[in-house]
């Protein structure tokens, strides 16, 4: 595994990246159920959270002090970048495009999230028409104030330092989770042309997570090239070590933090460090989202159980312990990916944990599509300013030649089964339309 660490924010200081996102008309994720705000440690964190922009500005010094404590470096001034976002389309039940947009409810934010996204694998496995229309069937499902995906590859030309060396002929990867051009042995590396960032923008994504095992496949240069490509198309990103990305949506601030098990990302194996980063995010934002690339890979890895998981000799963390720890620290939503299959969802202290959203897109057919490996989806969640639950839904998707499309309920059915099986008391409940209902005790 290539362990070279990509560059951090200028000067090597802890990175708090702030992005101003204009609001747009939409309707919230469907399904609102009364839910009592959790008590205890999480509620204490919530009371300390700033509620207005002025209060957030007053807390900037605290952020810098916390950031310096985490990384042992001087605090850094937040960097503002403008990003225009088109008005999203609303959804009817089951993920079909609605006919009429509705004004957003004041004091709420609607988030959309997917699992693993690959746009192809250069030079041999690229999608038809250079990727045009790859996401055409799922654009309505991604319509939200903030749409996020896990970008499972660099967007770069060949830097000459691919972690696997020269590619070998395409073949099935270990565990049957993927098929792509690989190097010697079982080494797998991905990259797509930088221009393909336009497809992510056109799909409706606003922010991409880079905390995963393939971000550094083509070294530091590949990471820099990826961020330049995303910048060029008005897309934001998160996932570098010590990085907290803050997005302003209307009058709310949403912090997104990416975690994985690798040197170039916030590390989910060290819970004390992970929770410190989340507390930094809490000090900066109204709502905090954790993106986590965690858990073992494979079609037989859909179950969530306590304890560490390993894949190909690598510790992929203890997903349950990590997710619950970051919620204790103040996270309002945990979005998991990495196993390449859907996993169940649970509510913990009133916050939703999605342990894996599965495979979402794989241009050029670089991921396996048989069985549950081809099933993924879009998680749509609406949260209030204090992070409490307003409503949510899951729009299941299936891939055909790597192109995602709504799956007529298959993904929601699978997710319902997994959540009930693995979390009998705390599992998310899904109705026939895919709406997510918190359990009586979550």
TrEMBL record:
Report domain Capsule synthesis protein CapA positions. Answer: 110-364
Q: Where is this region: Disordered?
A: 1-44
Which interval of the chain is the signal sequence? Answer: none
**Does the UniProt entry include the keyword Transmembrane?**
yes
UniProt entry keywords in alphabetical sequence: Membrane, Transmembrane, Transmembrane helix
Name the residues that span the membrane. 53-72
What Pfam families does UniProt report for this protein, alphabetically? PGA_cap
Task: Please give the name of this protein.
Answer: Capsule synthesis protein CapA domain-containing protein
């Amino acid at each position: 595994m290539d362990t070279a660490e990509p560059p951090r924010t200028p000067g090597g200081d802890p990175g708090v990246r702030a992005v101003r996102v204009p609001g747009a008309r939409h309707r919230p994720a469907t399904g609102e159920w009364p839910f009592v705000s959790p008590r205890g440690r999480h509620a204490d964190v919530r009371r300390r959270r700033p509620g207005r922009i002025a209060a957030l500005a007053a807390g900037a010094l605290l952020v810098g002090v916390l950031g310096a404590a985490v990384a042992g470096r001087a605090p850094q001034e937040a960097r503002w970048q403008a990003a225009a976002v088109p008005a999203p389309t609303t959804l009817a039940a089951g993920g079909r495009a609605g006919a009429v947009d509705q004004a957003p409810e004041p004091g709420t934010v609607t988030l959309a999230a997917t699992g693993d996204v690959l746009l192809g694998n250069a030079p041999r496995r690229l999608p038809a028409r250079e990727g045009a229309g790859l996401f055409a069937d799922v654009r309505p499902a991604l319509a939200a104030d903030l749409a996020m995906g896990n970008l499972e590859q660099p967007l770069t030309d060949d830097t000459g330092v691919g972690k696997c060396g020269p590619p070998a002929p395409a073949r099935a990867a270990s565990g049957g989770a993927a098929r792509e051009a690989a190097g010697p042995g079982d080494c797998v590396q991905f990259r797509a042309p930088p221009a393909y960032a336009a497809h992510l923008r056109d799909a409706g994504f606003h922010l991409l997570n880079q905390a995963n095992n393939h971000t550094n496949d083509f070294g530091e240069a590949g990471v820099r090239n990826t961020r330049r490509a995303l910048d060029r198309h008005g897309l934001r990103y998160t996932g570098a070590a010590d990085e907290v990305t803050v997005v302003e949506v209307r009058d709310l601030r949403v912090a997104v933090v990416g975690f994985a098990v690798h040197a170039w990302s916030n590390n989910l194996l060290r819970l004390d460090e992970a929770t410190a980063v989340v507390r930094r995010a809490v000090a900066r934002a109204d709502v905090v989202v954790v993106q986590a690339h965690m858990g073992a890979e494979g079609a037989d890895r859909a179950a969530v159980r306590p304890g560490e998981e390993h894949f190909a000799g690598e510790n992929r963390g203890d997903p349950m312990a990590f997710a619950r720890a970051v919620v204790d620290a103040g996270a309002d939503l945990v979005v998991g990916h990495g196993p390449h299959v859907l996993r169940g969802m649970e509510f913990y202290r009133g916050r939703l944990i999605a342990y894996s959203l599965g495979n979402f897109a794989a241009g050029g057919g670089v991921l396996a599509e048989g069985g549950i490996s081809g099933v993924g989806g879009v998680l749509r969640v609406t949260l209030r300013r204090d992070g409490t639950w307003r409503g949510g839904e899951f729009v299941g998707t299936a891939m055909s030649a790597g192109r995602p499309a709504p799956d007529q309920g298959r993904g929601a059915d699978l997710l319902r089964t997994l959540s009930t099986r693995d979390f009998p008391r705390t599992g998310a409940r899904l109705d026939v339309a895919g709406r997510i209902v918190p359990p009586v005790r979550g």
